[in-house]
Structure formats: C-alpha cells, structure tokens
Amino acid sequence: MTLPNMNLSQARTGSIDSGGYVVKVVNTNIDTQYNRLQLLVDIAEGDKRGYYSDLDGKYGFWGLTANLSLEPENAWKFANAIDAFRASNEGFVWNDDGENDERSLIGMCCGVITQKKHYIGNDGRKKSKLQVYRIIPAEDIRSGNYEVPDDLYANGLSAAPASPAAGVVDTTAGPVEGFGPLNDDDIPFA
Asked: Which of 27, 68, 73, 147 could form a disulfide with 37 if both were Cys (CB 3.0 to 4.6 A apart)?
C-alpha cells in the first residue's frame, strides 16, 4: 500500500528559540484589565519571517505579544520602546507629550530580544513560551548588538536538573521503616 501525500513539509512549524528578531507590528490592543498596550508582532526578516502569522493561520492563536505598561512608573520603558520605533522607521512620528493613536504603530518595525519562560500550566504540566524581553532598534538586531537573557523559571521551577538520587532510599544507615529483607518467595517471576 502507498501512503497518501500528507504535505509534511507544510505541517512542520519549526520552533523559535530565544534570541533577537526584527519584527513588525501587525495589530494593537489596549488591555484595560492590566493597563497596558499590547503589540502583536511577527518576525519581519530572516528564515523565520511570518512565523506567527503562519502559526495563527494553522492553530488560531497569536504567539508573540509585546506588552507596554501604561502605568506612570513604567513610562521610561514605554519611552525606550518608542525611541526604538523612531530609530527603526524613518519618518515615524509620536507625540511624546500628547495623545497618540496606538494604531499608528501597525506596520512599524523594531527589534525585540526574546526570553524563554518555563512555567506550570493550569493543567499541571510543565510548559514554556517565548516572550518579549526588550524592544530595541532593529539595527541592533541586524548588527548583533544585544544579549539574550537566561531562561526564566516561574512557579517553583528551576534551571537545575533533578538530582539523579532523588527518591532513592539509603538503606546503608540502618533499617528504614516499611523496608526489610525480601524472601525469594516474595519476588514475582523469580
């Protein structure tokens, strides 16, 4: 029997590692619950270009969002992101001391440094996702002028591998309650 063509080359989504990417803003949203501006971004250059649009088309969710806090104490972070947009897009205009339309960021490019976050999901399973760590000028990504942060471990996870001796009972120190010598008759399939 011959298997049908399953278009496997199109089924592979690949993966995205922590690193630096030149991205383009494809949509914006003001999240009033967390008082932040959400920028849905997609990779704009390189072999992973369009990765998140493809992911959305295949699986129905957007995988990478840059969140800019609207809280006054975080205004400096917002200002740094706007400066990165200015440096990355000739003619980009943003009124620093007035109101702006967040949709003016749609179509604009910038650089992002991403970080992998490991966490325990609501289903109790270990998961990981890529998140935007910092927004920088696109030219810094192109020239390699950035550092990728270490992975972030949340919900009690750690980067240290589990000890190979975890769960091993040391019986050399003497008898342990519940453990004792075995008779050959107690061993199944002996």
From this structure: 68
